[in-house]
From TrEMBL:
<protein>
    <submittedName>
        <fullName>Putative serine/threonine-protein kinase dyrk2</fullName>
    </submittedName>
</protein>
<keyword id="KW-0723">Serine/threonine-protein kinase</keyword>
<dbReference type="GO" id="GO:0004674">
    <property type="term" value="F:protein serine/threonine kinase activity"/>
</dbReference>
<dbReference type="GO" id="GO:0005524">
    <property type="term" value="F:ATP binding"/>
</dbReference>
<keyword id="KW-0597">Phosphoprotein</keyword>
<keyword id="KW-0808">Transferase</keyword>
<dbReference type="InterPro" id="IPR008271">
    <property type="entry name" value="Ser/Thr_kinase_AS"/>
</dbReference>
<dbReference type="InterPro" id="IPR050494">
    <property type="entry name" value="Ser_Thr_dual-spec_kinase"/>
</dbReference>
<feature type="domain" description="Protein kinase">
    <location>
        <begin position="74"/>
        <end position="376"/>
    </location>
</feature>
<feature type="signal peptide">
    <location>
        <begin position="1"/>
        <end position="19"/>
    </location>
</feature>
<dbReference type="Pfam" id="PF00069">
    <property type="entry name" value="Pkinase"/>
</dbReference>
<keyword id="KW-0547">Nucleotide-binding</keyword>
<dbReference type="InterPro" id="IPR011009">
    <property type="entry name" value="Kinase-like_dom_sf"/>
</dbReference>
<keyword id="KW-0732">Signal</keyword>
<keyword id="KW-0418">Kinase</keyword>
<keyword id="KW-0067">ATP-binding</keyword>
<dbReference type="InterPro" id="IPR000719">
    <property type="entry name" value="Prot_kinase_dom"/>
</dbReference>
Amino acid sequence: MEKHLCLVLLQPLFSAAGAGQFQVHNFSTSFAIGNFACSNRKFLISISVLWCRTGFEEDKNFHVVLNSVIAGRYHVTEYLGSAAFSKAIQAHDLHTGMDVCVKIIKNNKDFFDQSLDEIKLLKFVNKNDPADKYHILRLYDYFYYREHLLIVCELLKANLYEFHKFNRESGGEVYFTMPRLQSITIQCLEALQFLHGLGLIHCDLKPENILVKSYSRCEVKVIDLGSSCFETDHLCSYVQSRSYRAPEVILGLPYDKKIDVWSLGCILAELCTGNVLFQNDSPATLLARVIGIIGSIDQGMLAKGRDTYKYFTKNHMLYERNQDTNRLEYLIPKKTSLRHRLPMGDQGFIDFVSHMLEINPKKRPSASEALKHPWLSYPYEPISS
């Protein structure tokens, strides 16, 4: 027998008053969304518990059973895969008749807290996009079940990394043509423009965080706001997956929404060629790749960077410390160009990516400005369904 309770929660506080009896602690909490402080706002989360259990026993594993029903509502139809702090399943919502994705968060306090942050942000973003116009993942439900936080969202298809890899290895028709890259770019920029308009920085845009909604119509959605932050927040110095990390972040300079534009430029180059644009195994080798392909870093950026000394000598020579010998080794960037790296791209595409990958963030376009670039209105042949 299951009993459905509701808990006001920022930290899971629940105690058993006796066998089969439960006491729910309700708290008024305060949290901020950007500049909007919300005092006495209650963050509600449903908790589905077994009659004689608190729902917070120590159990690190959630065992997925096909054809089982979760919380009396979600009929499990397929196991989709796992990530660092979650696993995902496809389920049929018995209440709405829709197929959905259920993300099961591992039973770990840090993962739990980060997921609550993402839930808050998704609720905030979805509320500001009621018509679902801006290509951001839709959140449907969330609840605590059998010692795990579960997040229910719209069911999408493969991410761009997985799909591109499959497309190349299968030997079929190339999917990421110029017309499709143009369409994907517009959708991602519209998503970023919307997020940035709300004061949010995504902070982890990469191929794995852009999912296909429709292959035939070339529709995509941006996911994973777990690392996102408001521009008004105290910004973390460690953001973005390394291969898509903007120079200002590496150097320890103040950053803003334009770091997402840099990441998108990296993604587009990768989709065009099938290879990571700035291949690297450390921040220093990443900088070497950036300098070699895009050009030198402004002296003013080097002078103001809090972490410049970690990668450059006083004479602005790029170096890396050998972890085995503890000696400094100078890195000489191999000179090449975007045109050489993107042989399959047309001139308009190359110019656009170059525009996105402006090293100086003051010269780099915002998402709104990038949407006005001529390449995005070039009349390619319509995408066939």
